[in-house]
Amino acid sequence: MTTRPGTIVVALGGNALAPAGERADIHVQFAHTRESLSAVVALAQEGWHIAIVHGNAPQVGDALVRNELARERVEPLPLGVLVASTAGWIGYMIQQSLQNALHKVGVRREVLTVITQTKVDRGGALAKPTKHIGHALEPDQVERLKRRGAAVGQDGGGHWRRLAPSPEPEDVVEADAVRQLVDDGKIVIAAGGGGPPVYLDDRLHWEGVDAVVDKDRVAAILGGRLGADTLLILTNVDAVYRGWGTPHAKPLRHLSVDSAEELLDGEELGVGSMRPKVEAAVAFVRDGGGRAVIADLPDGLAAIRGEAGTTITGEME
What pTM value is reported for the model? Predict the structure, then answer.
């Protein structure tokens, strides 16, 4: 498989920076950030034009907890503003860590963070919270949140977590500016946490929404707007599997977009975090992208070379 440098959007999960089961203080998150960027450094060395989209599910959940603990002293911030806030400080963390890593290998590329807004559909998704955010909750925390009327639910791993509304993304408002920067050789961190969601108000123009947006779906949209060749979704699973969670589980190294859609039509992907990743990959390829790659975080560069992960293209290879 060719690895000719082109334009790539790298989607990095928020859990990569704050893994489950660890105390997510800022020093730990900086350490995990540094560990997560080896593939991006290698892509920069090869001359790829790069945009990075990161998740924020653990971090924005922590921000809600800070809201609640401090509400007697300071006015709480709405969820949409918290998304923008996490996009800023996580972007700073990635930006600084990547700048240092590039300096170490002698690559002179500017890295910058752009707070971008995501235009969303204000339909029924706002009425029913569906997106898991924050860390796993203890039983007493679940009960306290339920008594307050906060939405909670079990994730794909059976852990209780907070839930937030997650409307369907339609566009990245500042995509043209991001494309100019990427085309100029800058490495741009954009659509952080999926980007603070906004809609077009008849009177005010852009107006915020208290929700979170799936970062993989936004990465696919941004990839289309940038004319990207490749969408690389880095996660904590080494590939898309047929029969995941069964004794007959089989990794799928290459999928045509038609085969991927057939997989989505069935029940093998369940409702876990892999489904939106495959949906995003399919949307990117259907929108004209060359290929989408889903891989375990340490396998990012190997996956780009077709040696790991799952590659989804217009045709079966």
Answer: 0.91
